[in-house]
Amino acid sequence: MTLDEVMKELAAKATPSTKKTYLRHGAVEPVFGVRVGDLKPLQKKLKGRQDLALELYATKNSDAMYLAGLIADGTRMTRRQLDQWAAGATWHLIAGCTVPWVAAEHPDAVAIAAKWIDSKRELTAVAGWATLTSLAAFAPDSALPIKELEALLKRCAGAIATAPNRVRYAMNSFVIACGTYVGPLADAAIATARRIGKVTVDMGETDCQVPDAESYIVKSRRGAPVAPKRKSTRC
Question: Chain-centre distance of CA 19, in angstroms?
């Protein structure tokens, strides 16, 4: 399929109610309004089409950008391309899901994320923390820089209260991921969650809530020291 063919199919799958929901949650135009479930057949058909993924993301259309993240291979992207994706994220769903899915697959994911979390651009910082969250959830503990992640937990404890709105949500999610999936950081993440306490984030005109990190970690472990690693963070 060509870019034009995919865009036409996305437009055909869109519904006004879905578009309204996305806009209410923070999406910006252009957006068709395609349900994630309706993207799955396209994901299966187009997975691995790296050239097409880059073209889709470049459209700035939210549905196309989301699909790009579903089919792209992060190991095949350059750091420059990933920086462009982070800088081009149009709203928190793209910054917090699409970009991290791909960036976390890159061999230099930690270094890339460490650069992004220092960005003064809120959505780029979100992408950085979300990339670290993805890594914590699926990468083997032996492949993770435990000391560096532990230092970032301490950073969350000290900085989350004054961080930009959506960055607070991303930092809270990072604490949850470390406590849920990373054995060497399980206790440190719980301690961080207790120090942080309730995290307040303006979620706009939605019913979405910020999870309490400690209770979420405990629930996700289901009585085990940590939860099993995820095979993928894409959804």
Answer: 21
